[in-house]
Amino acid sequence: SATAVVFSDAIPTRTTYVPASLRLNGAPLTDDAADADAGSLQTAPTRAVRVALGAITQSSGPQTITFDVTID
Hints:
This protein is mainly beta and 72 residues long. Helix content is 0%, strand content 47%. It has no helices and eight strands.
């Protein structure tokens, strides 16, 4: 078991995050940290996607997070 789990993945240099491409287990998440869903796009101090998974256990099963970037 784990509590307060947060996934964060930096957007690689020379790439651009594709807006509205963030998904958790296939369900879309918004890029806005101010709304109620678990996803957000962080712009400072580094560009990254962030998904707050909360408490997870073995019975939660795999959690799949996807997002797209374009190569600049």
